[in-house]
Structures are given as structure tokens and as C-alpha cells.
Design a protein that fits this description.
heterotrimer, A alpha/beta, B alpha/beta, C alpha/beta, B: alpha/beta, Rossmann fold, 5-stranded parallel beta sheet, about 45% helix, C: alpha/beta, TIM Barrel, 2 domains, 9-stranded parallel beta sheet
């Protein structure tokens, strides 16, 4: 049996080592990656994907740990993908999110994987999406994706999740201001964590007020919940709200959402294929180096060079 | 398609001691050398360490211990690694480990044991040369 | 500002300080100072360059471990505001820069206190008796990791750890063995214990009760500094709030019942060992001290009731003068804080009594005998800095637990300083040194800047939650490591002057695995033989009182006397308080 078939079978049999290896193939963007995704594709689509984002220090990991605990109590299996940034200078990354979830690491019904974003803008959502598919095909009922809410990743998390939870905490005022623009549109549920802290009510009403400013007609009204992840207070309410959102999606919104998603993904996939095949061609003919040289010697700017490439493609 | 492989390293602290200065410095040095470091915090059981290494599909496990419990905990970890068929994972250790114990630890599959005062450069080189990718 | 001052700033980049004219409190006459300045400039422009030409300096830049720039030479200009009466005063008087006591070591030497403990209670009991017979004046107990983490020796997390790094104490039975034949009214005992400090202190009290020693006669220290655990030592049992509550319970209980006990030893040692520099060690320790004072004031005690018993614990690292300056600055700064911030009136409330331990992380596994010299310099710094109590590390500690011979050399090092070197004949021997006074000022100034920042964050607890300390410490540790690797700092035997084969003069101490088996068997037997109905009753009561937020000392003493174990008591507290998970900052 080939490597791909072996991994695919392993994932379907819920073999943890196969799941881990398959994820690595996706993460590394190995040539086998699309084949694995293709063979698992039919077995996906059952899991509910929850995206959790928010600034550093808002208590996302602790909240996730409590969610896992509750989900496990109700018999659900859980996959977690914790995404952290790659250093743009060294290419290395420090992945420490699972510290808070370690007691679930030996639970057969839980699979936790840390991922570095590897400086991929846009590419992250593709890789994440495919890692979700692996976990989905391995039978996880719920898949939680955690990202730090800063810049690009907010938009990315919407692309991969069914339900997006934005976690905030009092005392991180500046951060809330900074990410406010980005987060108000993406959250299906907002959580003010560390609710026992001073100013928790203030943060809560700030978020509430920002949501009210958004007058756009929507059939789902995001709400703001308070939690104390450390003690588990508010977790039951949060899960109930997640369930409500899932029901709402099922009633039709999900289909709309999935259609949109399918379209975006198709566009992305075509784009990627085209770009990759053009570049591969140019490399093959040796043209690639010459074009690069043009830019380096300031003979032409990148856009003109791109135009030139396209013209050749179209007119032969 | 351009594959992008990175060395993934689990830095783990078995045992009850809390001396994580060394572990963190090693984590930072390896990260600065372009690797992805998974850090699991203090007081991990052998089961948690090996299961984490498996889920994270790491190429390397670095174990740090200063409490003297390595004689009991390291063999347990190595046993679990074998049991799960993860023989391709490179394992190294650091901490206060007496010379005569080092021989025993190497015999059970720990590739190298680094004592106090090891330059981080030596470690980075060791990992780059020995990790299977 | 006069032209000369402008020039000074422009040419020599010196901080501008307004020199008062006439009626000044400064020690140095302004005219004389200007003369020194002129002379120094002459020396710097004529003498120095020609000398450097022939004998270049080894480095372009010199700095202390904490990053304070070190100049070629210090003169009165560097302490031009120096005011003897205000800045130094006299030994035993505010602001205590020159020492806590009027005659310092002429009257009474520091307490030579060697931290020890390993294996079973019997083995450590023997080691204690040996140390006392060798002239040690105080006991200091090292507990093993299971005890420190509140696990009994038979808990699954204790596997492989029992008796390894300290003595295993799971119940009052073990403590009885540990102090067998040692009358508690004749020794002072320091216990390095934090999370379960209440339990270990309660055992000590129970033994005192058995020996017939009244509680007000018990003398010693519980480290009981739970705050620093969250960012330095990281042996945390409970979340921050209940941890601070337990620390405060002990302070309150001791204030009322154990007047000679030091309920808390506010510790910079672990902050330093975790990788901070001297300034951070000083600042973070004092910030913790402020937090304990505030938390105890909230219990309704008056500052002068408990402040005299607060004690401190610092590290003595390699940078000789910086360490001396740190100890001096610590005393002065704490006195100021207690007086100005907390309005303490009792002079003893202003005292910073300190214990110092030489720095474990400076010891090298390479050429271990060299560590004897490191320890000697570090302990000399502690003595010149005016410590009340000192632990000297054994030279084999980077390799294993110290063996008896190595412990003896460590103790002898203190005795040589005390009896042979002559440094104890006078007080604050370096007071008035331009360099030491300058560094002392710098230490104080920079520590105060940190304390202001921590205050602005809302105090120690908020700073912990933000990972502030953790980040500061991790950065310093990494920087120090990089300096060694790039050879900006020389570490003899490690990055220079290395040898092929190390020489270790004696056999290392090994703790045998049988220790664990024996201890576990003994514990299980005890659990079977005690009155388990009584144990259950008292543990239920403990649960109740914990729920009701009572001071837990009395009920814990009661519980231990029924031979309820450390693990059982901790378990009850864990169910009420919850368990702590560390915040990872790299």
C-alpha cells in the first residue's frame, strides 16, 4: 500500500499516529497533500467547526480547556488546532497553547495539534481547512480552531469556521480598540472572559454598544456572554449558545454558508493551480530566472513583467 | 508545489521539579534557529509527553530534568515511545544527570545527554544534524 | 545651568545634576568638586590615552550583570549629592544602609545556616546532628519535590522523586523522626516550603507541643512566599488568590501566637536563579513584600504588629560589587518604603533582615572544584553587604546533591571569612567607596523605577497575570546565556580555560531507590494504624472551614495531630481552591 493510502486508511480508522502524520503532510504542503484531501473529502462535513479568536491574555486556552471538558462529558469527541505566529525573522515558532489543555492529551476522544502559521497569508486558511478535514474524517464531532486575534488571522478564521467566538477580557482595553474594527463583523458569539475582574461590566457594555452600532440586517444577532474560564462559570451558557448557532445554521443558513464557502474554495484552488503551473512552466524553460533578473536590474517593474508573462500565455 | 518542512521539537519537563530556566533557554535557541517548538509546561507525566509528541508529530523530543527522578521517568518515556512505534523520533536530555547514569540512558535510546554549561549553539547543531526530517 | 555644566553634558555625557550653591547638604565642597572634575578631565585627556595606546583595554564597554555601565574610575563626582547622614546614617539606624545592628559582626556573627535534607527523615536527622556538632547554628530543611507539591510519598506523581532532592515528609510521623533528639528550644529552624507551608509549620508546632516547648519560644522561618512561585520558582499548588490567602494566614497566626517566628521569607533568590538580573531581583522581591504588607493590613493588623517579623532572602551572584550594592540598597529602600508608604513607626518594622544564599546557577559542572572559589567570593559579598544569615553552596551541586565533605568545605568557607579574613572587625567596610556608593544609588533608583511600573499595573497580582515578571526574567536569562556564548562574559572552565577531563575529588552522593520503597511502606503502615474515623472527621471540618474562608492554621494543626497526611490535607484544599496552571512566557 502506498503512503497516501496508508495514511488515509489510518485516519479513517482513527489511528492517532496516522492522523498526526497526515496533518504534517498538509502542513508541509507535500506533493501528497492534495491526494490525501481528495481521498478523505467524502468523509468530511460532519464536524462542527468553532473558531476562537481574541487578543493575547484574554484566556482563550483556558476557555477551550473548559469547553473540551464539557463536550467530553456529553460524549462528544473533540479536535483542537491551536495556531500561533511564526517569527518573520527566524522562521521559528513557539507553540505553547496546549499547556492549558495537557490533561486532555491522553484522552482518546481528544486530539490537539499546534500549528505555526509559517508566515502564510491566505495560505493559512487553506492548510487549516485541510487539517480540519483530516480531523473531521477521523470522526471528531467538534473541532476548535484557536488563533490570536491580530490582523490577518481574524479574516482567516471566518473562512474555516462554522461558528466564530471572539474572546475579550477586561483590562486589555487597548487591544480591544485596536482590533475592534476587524472583530465586530466576524463574531457570532462574543465572550467577555475573566468576568470577576474590575471593569468587566464596562468591557461588556462596550462590546454591546459596538454591536448595536452595527445596523446591518442579519438573521443571526450576535450576543455577548460573560465567563470565568478559570472556575468554569458561564461555560454551560456558552455551549448552549454555540448549540443555538449550530441549529440556526442547520435551518438554511448553513447551506448558504456552505455554498459561499465552496465557491471561495474553488476560486482559491483554481488560482493556486494556475499560479503554480505557470511558475513551474517558467522554471522549466529557464524563463523564471531571466524574468527575476529583469526586476533586479531595474529593467522592468514586477507588474510589467507579470503583464508580459500573461500576454505570452494568452497569445502563445 | 513547494514543500516547506520544519523541524518540530517537543521540549518537555517530566518530574516534579520546576527548574525551567534551561528548558526555556533551549526552547528559545531552537526557535531562533528556525524550528517549531512545542512546549508543554512543568510536571508532565511520561504518558502525556509521549502522547503529545505523537499528536504533534515532532521530529525531536528534548527532556529536561533536575530532580534526580530521571532514573525512573526516562526509561518509562523510552518504553512508551517504542510501544507507539515512534522510533524515528530523536530524543535528547538535559539537566543534572550523573556520568554513570548517562551510559544507561544512552543504552535505552536517548541519543545525547547535555549537562549544565552546554552552549546553545552545540544543541542547535546537534538537533540539525540528527533530526530525521 | 552654567556653561561648565553644559560642557560636562556635551563632552562627557554625564547626567546633569543641579549643584546647589552655598548651604548645601552635600558632603563635597562645590569648589573642591570642580577641582576634582578639572583634574579628572586632565587625567583623561593626557594620562589615559597614552597609556591605552601602549596597553589597550580588554573591552570597549564594561557593564555589570544588570547592565549598569561601569566606568574606568569613580570619583566624588559620581556621588556629588552624597549626603552621609541622609544616605548612610549609622549602623542600626535609619536608613540602615550600613547595617541593621549597631555593632554588626563585632557583636554577633551571621547565622551559618546550611540548607540540607535528603532521603528519609532518619538520614536527614543524622545530617542535622552532624551539622550542629560541626558548629552550625541553625537548621534549614530541604524537602523533596512531592512534599513541596503537597503529595504524599505514595502518590503516583511522586514516583522516582521521593527523598531525591530533599527529605520526604508526608505526615507528623516523619517530622517526629526528623527532629528526634533535637530540642526545639535550642535551635532555630528554617523551612523552605511555600504552598504547603501551613502544614509544615503546623507539624513543627505540634512537635514543640509534644516536647513541651511553648509556642512563643519557637524560633525559625517558613519561606511561605507564594507570590514569587508564580513567576520564579513555579512550585504552585493553588491559584494566586488562595495562595496569597494561605501566606497571609500564616503571617496573621504567627503575629498572634509565634512571636519569634519569621512567618515569611520574601525571596529574591528564586527570581535570580530563574534568570533575572540583580536589579530585577531587588525590585520584584520588594514588590512582593509590599503585596504581603497590604494583604496583612487588610486582615486588620497594624503594620507595627507584624512588619518586624518579615524577613528576606537574596542570592549572591558573581558580580562582586554589584551584589554588595544590591544588599545595601535593599535595606535602604525597604526602610524607606515601610516608613513612607506604610507609616511604620517601630524601628524594627523598618529592618530588612536578610538571609543570603550563594547563587546555585553560577556553579559549573566543569572543573567543579573551581566552585569553591566562586562560593567564597559570593559569600564575601554577602558579608560585606551585611547579611544576617548565610548559606554557602557546595561545589558539587551542579553534579548532584552535595556530599558530606563538600558541605563541610562550604561551611568552612564561611568560617574562614568570619574568623580569618578580618573583614568582620569593622562595619560596612566598603561604605564611602565612590564606586560602591554610586552602584548602591543606581540599584535603588532602577529598582524603584520597576516598583513604580508594577504599581501602575495594579500591583504584583496583575503583573503576574500579564506575564510581566515572567517575560522580564526570561529575557534576562537569555541575554546572560548569549553573553556567555558570545564570550562577552568569561565563565572559567566553561567558555574559556577548559580542560579535557574534569577532576572530581570525591564520590557523589546518590540517593538509593530503596529510600522510596521504605518511605512508602512506612507511610502505608501509618495510614492503616491511625484512627481513620478521627482523620475523616477532621478533614471534613477542614473542608468546612476552608469554604468559610477562616484562618486555617488552627484546624490544620488539629488535623496533623490525628496523623492526617500532608497529601490528604492538600487534597481538601485543592478541591476548594482549585489547581494552578502556569502561564507560559518565553
Amino acid at each position: 500500500m502506498g503512503q497516501v493510502a496508508q495514511l488515509v486508511q489510518g485516519v479513517l480508522r482513527r489511528n492517532r499516529r496516522s492522523i498526526a502524520k497526515a496533518i504534517t503532510v498538509i502542513e508541509n504542503n507535500e506533493p501528497e497533500a492534495p491526494k490525501i484531501v481528495a481521498q478523505l473529502f467524502q468523509k468530511t462535513g460532519k464536524a462542527h467547526v468553532i473558531g476562537i479568536t481574541g487578543p493575547t491574555g484574554s484566556g482563550k486556552s483556558t476557555l477551550i480547556e473548559k469547553l473540551i471538558r464539557e463536550l467530553r462529558k456529553s460524549g462528544k469527541t473533540v479536535g483542537v488546532i491551536a495556531v500561533d505566529p511564526t517569527s518573520p525573522f527566524t522562521g521559528g515558532a513557539f507553540l505553547g497553547d496546549r499547556v492549558r489543555m495537557q490533561e486532555h492529551s491522553t484522552d482518546e476522544g481528544v486530539f490537539i495539534r499546534s500549528m505555526a502559521n509559517r508566515n502564510a497569508t491566505g495560505g493559512l486558511s487553506r492548510a487549516t481547512k485541510d487539517v480540519i478535514r483530516i480531523l473531521d474524517a477521523s470522526g471528531k464531532d467538534v473541532i476548535i480552531v484557536e488563533t490570536v486575534g491580530a490582523g490577518q488571522s481574524e479574516v482567516e478564521i471566518v473562512k474555516v469556521s462554522n461558528t466564530v467566538i471572539v474572546v475579550l477580557a477586561p483590562g486589555l482595553g487597548d487591544d480591544i480598540q485596536a482590533i475592534k474594527a476587524g472583530i465586530m463583523e466576524i463574531g457570532d458569539i462574543f465572550v467577555v472572559n475573566k468576568a470577576d475582574r474590575q471593569n468587566a461590566n464596562k468591557t461588556w457594555s462596550e462590546v454591546q454598544a459596538m454591536l448595536e452600532m452595527n445596523t446591518e440586517e442579519k438573521s443571526w444577532k450576535p450576543s455577548v456572554l460573560k465567563t470565568k474560564a478559570l472556575t468554569g462559570e458561564g461555560i454551560a451558557e456558552l455551549l448552549a449558545r454555540i448549540e443555538e448557532h449550530r441549529e440556526y445554521l442547520k435551518k438554511g443558513a448553513f447551506e448558504v454558508h456552505r455554498k459561499g464557502e465552496a465557491e471561495t474554495e474553488l476560486v482559491e484552488a483554481i488560482k493556486q493551480k494556475i499560479v503554480e503551473s505557470i511558475i513551474a512552466d517558467l522554471r522549466h524553460t529557464g524563463e523564471w530566472e531571466k524574468l527575476k533578473q529583469k526586476i533586479l536590474t531595474k529593467e522592468a517593474d514586477p507588474y510589467s513583467v507579470a503583464d508580459e508573462v500573461l500576454k505570452k500565455l494568452v497569445h502563445g | 508545489m513547494t514543500a516547506e518542512r520544519k523541524i518540530r521539537v517537543l521540549i518537555a519537563k517530566p518530574g516534579l521539579d520546576s527548574h525551567d530556566r534551561g528548558a526555556k533557554i533551549v526552547a528559545r535557541a531552537l526557535r531562533d534557529a528556525g524550528m517549531e517548538i512545542i512546549y508543554t509546561g512543568l510536571r508532565q507525566t511520561p504518558e502525556q509527553i509521549v502522547e503529545t509528541a505523537l499528536q504533534e508529530d515532532v521530529n525531536v523530543i528534548g527532556l529536561s530534568i533536575l530532580s534526580g527522578a530521571h532514573k525512573v521517568l526516562f526509561p518509562k518515556i523510552m518504553e512508551l515511545i517504542k510501544e507507539k512505534g515512534m522510533d524515528d523520533v530523536l530524543v535528547f536530555a538535559g539537566g543534572i544527570i550523573p556520568q554513570e547514569d548517562i551510559r544507561d540512558l544512552k543504552r535505552i535510546g536517548i541519543k545525547e545527554v547535555f549537562g549544565p554549561g552546554t552552549p546553545t549553539g552545540t544543541l542547535v547543531e546537534f538537533v540539525q544534524e540528527n533530526a530525521k526530517r | 545651568m552654567r556653561v561648565a555644566d553644559y560642557l560636562n553634558i556635551l563632552l562627557f555625557n554625564r547626567e546633569y545634576v543641579n549643584i546647589k550653591i552655598g548651604g548645601s547638604n552635600n558632603m563635597f565642597d562645590e569648589r573642591k568638586l570642580r577641582e576634582v572634575s578639572k583634574e579628572r578631565q586632565r587625567w583623561e585627556t593626557t594620562k589615559v590615552p597614552s597609556w591605552i595606546e601602549r596597553h589597550p583595554e580588554k573591552k570597549n564597554k564594561y557593564s555589570t550583570v544588570s547592565g549598569v555601565q561601569v566606568k574606568r574610575l569613580y570619583t566624588p563626582e559620581d556621588i556629588e549629592h552624597f549626603d552621609y547622614v541622609k544616605d548612610l546614617g549609622f549602623p542600626g539606624e535609619y536608613p540602615f544602609t550600613r547595617g541593621l545592628h549597631a555593632t554588626m559582626y563585632r557583636g554577633r556573627l551571621w547565622t551559618m545556616r546550611q540548607f540540607s535534607g535528603f532521603g528519609t527523615a532518619e538520614q536527614t536527622n543524622e545530617r542535622f546532628k552532624y551539622l550542629l556538632s560541626e558548629g552550625e547554628t541553625g537548621l534549614s530543611i530541604a524537602f523533596d519535590y512531592p512534599t513541596i507539591m503537597g503529595y504524599d510519598s505514595d502518590h503516583s506523581m511522586a514516583t522516582g522523586e521521593v527523598g531525591q532532592c530533599g527529605v520526604a515528609v508526608s505526615s507528623l510521623k516523619d517530622m517526629e523522626t526528623l527532629f528526634n533528639g533535637i530540642p526545639l528550644n535550642k535551635v532555630s529552624t528554617s523551612m523552605t516550603i511555600n504552598g504547603p507551608a501551613a502544614m509544615l509549620l503546623a507539624m513543627y508546632i505540634a512537635i514543640g507541643d509534644k516536647q513541651g516547648v511553648p509556642r512563643e519560644k519557637l524560633d525559625g522561618t517558613t519561606q511561605n512566599d507564594n507570590l514569587k512561585e508564580f513567576f520564579a520558582q513555579k512550585l504552585c499548588l493553588f491559584p494566586p488568590k488562595p495562595s496569597l490567602k494561605l501566606s497571609t494566614d500564616i503571617i496573621e497566626y504567627c503575629t498572634r501566637h509565634l512571636p519569634h517566628w519569621n512567618p515569611v521569607s520574601i525571596s529574591g533568590y528564586h527570581i535570580r536563579e530563574a534568570g533575572s538580573n540583580a536589579v530585577q531581583e531587588l525590585a520584584f522581591t520588594l514588590a512582593d513584600g509590599i503585596a504581603y504588607v497590604e494583604s496583612t493590613l487588610e486582615r486588620g493588623l497594624k503594620v507595627d504588629e507584624f512588619a518586624p517579623r518579615l524577613s528576606f532572602f537574596f542570592a549572591s551572584h558573581n558580580d562582586f560589587f554589584e551584589e554588595i550594592a544590591k544588599f545595601r540598597a535593599a535595606r535602604r529602600l525597604w526602610a524607606k518604603i515601610m516608613k513612607e508608604r506604610f507609616n511604620a513607626e517601630d524601628p524594627r518594622s523598618l529592618w530588612m533582615r536578610m538571609h543570603v544564599q550563594t547563587s546555585g546557577c553560577t556553579l559549573t559542572a566543569q572543573q567543579p572544584v573551581n566552585n569553591v572559589m566562586r562560593v567564597a567570593f559570593q559569600s564575601l559579598a554577602a558579608v560585606l553587604g551585611g547579611t544576617q544569615s548565610l548559606h554557602t553552596n557546595s561545589f558539587d551541586e551542579a553534579l548532584a546533591l552535595p556530599c558530606e565533605e563538600a558541605v563541610r568545605v562550604a561551611l568552612r568557607t564561611q568560617q574562614i571569612i568570619a574568623y580569618e579574613s578580618g573583614v568582620t572587625d569593622t562595619i560596612d567596610q566598603l561604605g564611602g567607596s565612590y564606586y560602591v556608593e554610586y552602584l548602591t544609588n543606581k540599584m535603588e533608583e532602577r529598582a524603584m523605577r520597576y516598583i513604580d511600573r508594577i504599581d501602575a499595573m495594579g500591583g504584583v497580582s496583575s503583573a503576574i497575570e500579564r506575564g510581566f515578571f515572567q517575560k522580564e526574567i526570561a529575557d534576562s536569562a537569555y541575554l546572560y546565556q548569549k553573553e556567555i556564548e558570545s564570550r562577552q562574559r568569561t565563565l572559567v572552565g566553561v567558555n574559556d580555560y577548559t580542560v579535557e577531563k574534569d577532576w572530581v575529588p570525591m564520590e557523589l552522593l546518590r540517593v538509593h531507590p530503596e529510600v522510596e520503597e521504605e518511605q512508602v511502606a512506612r507511610l502505608r503502615k501509618m495510614k492503616k494504624e491511625r484512627d481513620n474515623r478521627k482523620v475523616k472527621e477532621v478533614l471534613d471540618k477542614l473542608h468546612d472551614e476552608t469554604d468559610r474562608d477562616r484562618n486555617l492554621m488552627p484546624i490544620i494543626i488539629k488535623a496533623l495531630k490525628t496523623y492526617a497526611t500532608l497529601g490528604e490535607i492538600t487534597e481538601v484544599l485543592r478541591t476548594v481552591f482549585g489547581e494552578y496552571r502556569e502561564l507560559i512566557v518565553v
